[in-house]
Structures are given as C-alpha cells and as structure tokens.
Amino acid sequence: MTPFLLQAAADTSRAYGEFPVIGARAAVWIAAEVHLMFAAFVLGVPMFAVVTEAIGIFGKDQRYDRLSKEFTRLLLVAYSATAIWGAILVFFLATLYPRFWAYLTAIFHVSMWVYAGLFFFESFTLYLYYYGWDRWKTGRAKWGHWGLGILLNVWGTIVMLIANAWLTYMMSPPRDITPTTDPTSIKLWHAIANATWMPINVHRLIANVVFGGAIVGAYASYRFLAARTDEERAHYDWMGYVGNFIAISALIVLPFAGYWLGREIYQYDQSMGITMMGGFMSWLWVIQAFLIAVLFLTGNYYLWIGMGRIPGAERFRPYTKWLLVVLVLGALVWGTPHTMIADSKELAAMGGSHHPVLGALGVMSAKNTAVNLMILTTFLSFLMYRRANKRPVVPWARTGTLVQAAMFALAAAVVLFFGIRGYFVEAIVRIGFSVYQVGAVLSCILFVTIIDILMARGAQSLGTIQWGKMPARSQYALFVLAVTFTWLMGLMGFARSGIRMHWHVWQVVQDTSKYAATPALGYASRMISLCVLIFLSLVAFVFWLGGLAEKSTYVAGHGEAGRGDAPHVGH
Amino acid sequence: MWVTNLKVVGIVLGTLALYTLIANKIPQVQSEVPQALTLGADVTPEQLVAAGEKLFNGAGGCTACHGLGTRAPNLLTDEKGTGPIGARCGKREAGKTCKEYLFESLDQPAAFIVPGYQPIMPVMTKQLSPAQIWALISFLESQGGTVDVTAADIPAQTVPAAGGGSPGASSAGGAAFAGGSTDPMAIITAAGCLGCHKLNGTGGVIAPDLTHVGARRTADSIRRKILDPASSIAKGYEKMAGIMPKTFGTMMSAAQLEALVQFLASHK
C-alpha cells in the first residue's frame, strides 16, 4: 500500500467534525471569508489613512487630517469584528478539521504565537493612534502621531504576511515535502517562503487598499444620503469621491499583481494552473470579467455624474458617450469565453472547440488589448474630471495638451499593435507582448499625470466644485461598487482555494472528508453572496454603533463648505 | 430616511441576486474526487466506456486540455479530416494499434508528440489505476472507433485508489513500483524514465541524456533531483522545468531509490 493510501485511511478516523445544518465546510467557509473581508478592511484603511494624514501635514490642510481621523474611526469599530471572526475561524478549524489543524500547528505554531503578539501590538497602536489624535495634533507631537500611523501599518502588514504564509503553504508546499514528511521536521522559514507567498502578499496588499476605498466610499455615500445639512452633504460627497478614487486607482494596478500570481502558480505546478484557467474553474473567469466590467462602468459613471457638479465640465460631456462605447466593447471582448470546459454535446452545438466568429475574441491577445484600453479610457475619464474646472495658463499649455493626446494615441497604438500581432506568433512570444502593452499604458498614465500637474500650476479656475450637489443615483453607484468589490473578493478567494481541489495541502495532505469535492460555481456563488451579506450587514451595524458613540469628525460650525472653499481633491 | 434605507437594501440585495443568478445560469462543473474503480472479469465494453466517459469529463481532468483544441488535440471532434480520436488513433504511429497508441499516450506521453503541440501531458498511469486507464482507453476508442478493450487487458491485481485516490497514488505506486524490484533497469522501465531521458542510446530527447549522468552529478545530487525535480534544472532544459513528476520519491521504496541512485551515479 502506498503512503498516500495509508494517509487516506488514517485521515478518515476522527479527522473531521460536523456542523449542524450547513455542514463543516460551509461553516469554515463563512468564518474564513467574513474574517478575511474585515481583515482586508482594517489592513487597507490604515494605508490610505496615514497617506491622507500626511497630505494634511505637508499641505497644512486640516480637512485631510479630519478625513484621515474619520477613516480611522471606521477602523476602530471594525477591528473588534475582525478579531471575533478570526477567533470563530480558529475554533471552527480546531473542532471541525482537527487533524488538519494539528498538522498546520505542528509546522506554524511559532508563527502563530508571533501573530498573536503582533495582533496585541497592532491593537494598542491603533488605540493610541485614534485616541491620541487630538492630543498630539501640532508640532513634533503630530509627527509622532503620524509615526504611530506608519507603525500601525507595519504591524498590520506583518500580521498579513504571517497569515498569508499559512494559506499559501496549503497551495504550494515546497517540493521536498511529501505526504510522509513529519510536519514537525519542516523548518518554519522553509514552509513560509513557498512559491506563492510573495505574489499573494503583493496582490493582497493592493487589493486591501481597493477594498478599503470601496467600503469607505459606500459609508460616505450612506452618510451623504442621510445628511441633513448642505455642509454635511458636501463633506460626505468629498469623502465618497476620495474613497472611489483610492479604490479605482489601486484597482488599475491589481491585474498586474494577479498576473504575477498566476504565473507563479503555473510555474509551481502546471496542472494547478490549467485547473485554474482552463479546467473546471474556467467559467469563473467569465463571471470575473462581468464583475470587472461592472466596476469599470460604474466607476466611470460615477465620475461622469460627478462632472455635473463641476463648472466647465460641459465641454467634455460630448466625449463621454465614446468612452462608454470603448468600455462596453472592451467588457464584451474580455467576457468572451475561450478555453472552457465543454462536453461533446456542447462542443457540437458550438460547431467546434471555439465559436466560429467570437472564438477569435476569446484569446489572450484580444483580452489583454481590451483591458488595457479600458484602463486607458478610465484614466481619460479621470483626467477630464480633474481638468474640468481649470483652464491652463502656462505658455506651453496647447503643446502640453497635444503631447498628452499623442501619448494616449501612442499607448493605444502600442496596445493594439501587440494585440493584433499576438495572433501571428507562438504562445511563448505572445505572453511577452502583454508586458509591452502594460508598459505602454502605465507609462502613459505616469507621464500624462506629470504633464497635467505641471500644466495646472496657476491655472485659471472656471468655478469651484459644488460638493454635495450630486444626484442620489451617484451614491447608489458607490454602493454597487462596494458590493461588487466585496463579491469579487469572495469569488477570487474561492478560485485560490478551489484550485487545491481535494487537497488540504496540495498533494501533501488529502481532504478525505465528505466535502472533498470542490463545488460548482452555482453553490460557490450562493456562499459568496451569503458571506457578502453577513459582512455588509455587520459593517452597517458596527458603523451605526460607532455613530452612536461619536458624531462624524465633520460637524456643523467648521464652515469650510459654507465659505465656498468646499473640500476637494486635486483642484 | 426609511425610503433611503430601503433603496440601499434593495440595491445591495439586487446586485447580489444578479451575480448569484448569473453564476447559477452558466454550466455547473464540480471537481470530482478520484474514486476507486472495480471492474470484474465479466465487465462489458459499455460499462468500460461509461466509466471512461465519467473519468474523461471528471476526475481524469482530461477536458482541461483536450476537447478544447488549443493546448492539446481535440479528442471528441474531427481533427483535420481524420475524425475523432477513435477513428484516428490507429493511424497515429506506424505499427501501433489504436489500443497500443492510446495506452502509450497515457503511460509515456512524451514518446510521441502530435506535431504542433507541446509535451505537457502528465503521465496518467501515475495518477489513475490500471482499471481507470483501460476505461479511459475504451471511451476514447468509442469516439469514432471500435472498443476492443476487454477484462483481459486489465491487470488482475488492481489496487483501487480508496478513500479518494490521489495523483501519485497509482496502483503501481509505492512498494509495488516495478513489482518492488531493485533492478535499476526494471525501475527505469516501470517509471517511464526513457520517455523523456535517453540512456545508452535509447529513450527520449526532451530531458538530459542519462548515459553519463554520473560524471555531471554526485549520488546526492541525483537523489535530490529524483525526490525534488525542481531542486536543479540542467542547463539548456530550463523550458522543460516542471515536466518531471515530483512523485517518484513516494512511489518507490528506499531500497529501490538507492539502487537507482547508485546505478545512475556509476554511469560516468
């Protein structure tokens, strides 16, 4: 009998517990997912809270300082929920998957002690950061306070790196570890530094910012809708804009981190990569494409509506319909299926392995081209928004604008050229083309932004942004964004975890429970929706609780909006 | 305010419902856990084909590449006028019947690579039991051809992959690898090393020639390479990294491993 069979036989003996009604897998799924959502929020928000505070310090602008404090207040109330769900997850794992939990603790117990210690430090740093806000608000004390914010991020990031090590070990255990390896003999660092650890770290770091921005945007939109005064409405309009700006900006670079992660998965184990992209998970990417399309369309829609409150934006309005055309076409191409799991009947119905016409749009060349053009289009929307109420006065303004237009045209041309060329070269060459496409888009974003900042110096104002004068539908768009980001997070979590299939630890510890088969997308989607609903309900509840104890950092009487210099970003 | 609250709740629930609905409308594919397959002496071709089809579309993982036409040849539909796999399998390699060709494809996939494709096919005899392998061959033969697999083709001592058999948990694995023999050539033959490596002028060319491997590597290095193929990649073979199965260490006894290591180390 092979070692695998011995292991399988052993695992069936008191290896699993049972959970009433929903079952053990669903219980752990919910606990892990909701914990992760809260954790992403409390790790993402400090990153931009500390940046916002820095803008307030360096720009000597109190509005940013108050905004940063409001971000942190949301953090405070969400923090305990994160810890509670973390504890629930640990208890569920220990009681429902005791043998597997024992295996993990045998390898990672030291890191778990460190994790607990860091959690302690992180908590108290957060309390100091928030409760010391008004005490250390000037001079050197303010710098010290900002240092606390940085320290909070350091603790949080290390906590995330440790937790990521546990889950990435499950995905990609080092090659020399086999089912017969005694877990106590595995060196801790050897297990931590596995193939997917660093790509996941980077991917999650960025994704946390995206997620935090989206949830903050939704919070602000609710407060906007509930506002009783124009001042309050103006403040939360601005806060919602900042949240959305953070989320969309970070989202633009997220696919590149995802690409790296995917490449590492393929390099670690090609069969795992094929399972993910072309195996039973292939349909998941069509859903993902739909969600990304919703994010791009809704994010742009919010910006276009926002231009309605900016004097001078009328001159850009005729262009938005063309931007919409590019986004819709891009979304359709990105969502075109290609290498899908199909049975013989489905293949016969389609007339072959690919659709005779649309199949050509489902390949990576077309999809990379589509998404890069969508990113460029979104950036153009933002640029129009940014320039809406400004008329540049620098002598080289016309030349600058022409150079910017040329950069857009050049980037789009590079993207299209390599997209088309990709159809005529080998796969290994085609993969390299995506680097050129991404490089062109990122370079365009970087240089156009630099030129725009220089051109904006001393620009003539066409009027102040009328913060607060936004139709309600714009705020509902922020809710759609938050729900979509959260759902997408659940979906990608399912993809990452599901590609292990019937293994707790890929090809090392087998799942011999009755839940070993990875479920289909339909079941997964119901679980994801349930987790999102639980998370959003709890977020609403804890924010409401926070609101009971303390009013918004914006209180009537500060009078910024009333003075006509309403809070704004980049204008 | 209640109206606003209701609108917010409606938008959240509506968005969730839309995504859930779409995800439930697309084809539902669940990953299967490989199950034991026990076939008696009186097994019929229909039973073999049915079992094979289930494996092909499920636990075998075949559809991840085959049937799609890009990574690997499409097996269920016509290819360049030669028909589906059952119709063309007997014409792929000269001197090989359909059954022999299909078995070779599953046991030594690197032995014959269809022009235009990469050698990415895993050794399926290391992932599935002999009964499962022959059921798969029956199903593939049934795609445009004649099923000639019988119970006689299936080894009598089939050990089912019980409790959710696993990649690497083949019936030929563990101490039963090469019948437990410590004869290095028997191990090399059973493990299919020559599908990729050449030894004394015989074997494949997609992996380094082992004829003088002892001059390049120490016994320790050879042992490590067998147990962890990713530990070092021979110069010039970087693109083939990841193809060598990492399961050999779990599929032979310590005595077999040592015999193989010393045998290769002596080839200077």
SSE topology:
The complex is a heterodimer of chains A (571) and B (268).
Chain A: H1 3-11, H2 24-58, H3 62-96, H4 98-131, H5 139-171, H6 188-192, H7 197-226, H8 230-268, H9 270-277, H10 284-306, H11 317-334, H12 344-350, H13 364-387, E1 390-391, H14 397-421, H15 427-455, E2 460-461, H16 472-498, E3 503-505, E4 509-510, H17 521-549
Helix pairs in contact in A: 2-3, 2-5, 2-7, 2-17, 3-4, 3-17, 4-5, 5-7, 7-8, 7-16, 8-9, 10-11, 10-13, 10-16, 11-13, 13-14, 13-15, 14-15, 16-17
Chain B: H1 2-25, H2 45-57, H3 85-88, H4 98-107, H5 130-142, H6 184-191, E1 198-199, E2 202-203, H7 213-216, H8 219-227, H9 248-251, H10 254-265
Antiparallel strand pairs in B: 1-2
Helix pairs in contact in B: 2-5, 4-5, 6-10, 8-10
What does this structure look like?
The complex is a heterodimer of chains A (about 575) and B (about 270). Chain A contains 17 helices and 4 strands. With about 575 residues, chain A is mainly α. Chain A has a two-stranded antiparallel ribbon with strand order 1-2. Chain B is globular and about 85 Å long. In chain B, a hairpin with a 2-residue loop joins strand 1 and strand 2. In chain B, helix 2 (about 45-55) crosses helix 5, helix 6 (about 185-190) packs across helix 10 (about 255-265) and helix 8 crosses helix 10. Chain B folds into 2 domains: about 40-170, Cytochrome Bc1 Complex, Chain D, domain 2 (Orthogonal Bundle); about 180-270, Cytochrome Bc1 Complex, Chain D, domain 2, CATH 1.10.760.10. At the A-B interface, helix 1, helix 7, helix 9, helix 10 and helix 12 of A face helix 1 and helix 9 of B.
Overall average residue pLDDT of chain A = 87
Q: Helix/strand/pairing class of chain B, anyone? A: mainly alpha
Give the chain pair forming the largest contact, with residue counts. Answer: A-B, 74 and 66 residues
What's the SSE pattern of chain B? HHHHHHEEHHHH
Low-confidence stretches of chain B: 157-176
State the share of residues found in helices of chain A, binned by percent: over 70%
- Count up the helices of chain A: 17
Order of strands across the main sheet of chain B: 1-2
CATH superfamily of the largest domain in chain B: Cytochrome c-like domain
Ends distance of chain A: 72 Å
* Unreliable stretches of chain A: 1-11, 557-571
- How many alpha or pi helices of chain B? 10
Q: State the shape of chain B.
A: globular
What pattern of helices and strands is seen along the backbone of chain A? HHHHHHHHHHHHHEHHEHEEH
Compute the CA-based radius of gyration of chain A.
Answer: 25 Å
Average pLDDT of chain B works out at: 78
Q: What strand order characterises the main sheet of chain A?
A: 1-2
Radius of gyration of chain B equals 23 Å
Q: Bin the strand percentage of chain B.
A: under 5%
Instruction: Summarize the main sheet of chain A.
Output: 2 strands, antiparallel
Query: Helicity level of chain B, as a percent range?
Result: 25-40%
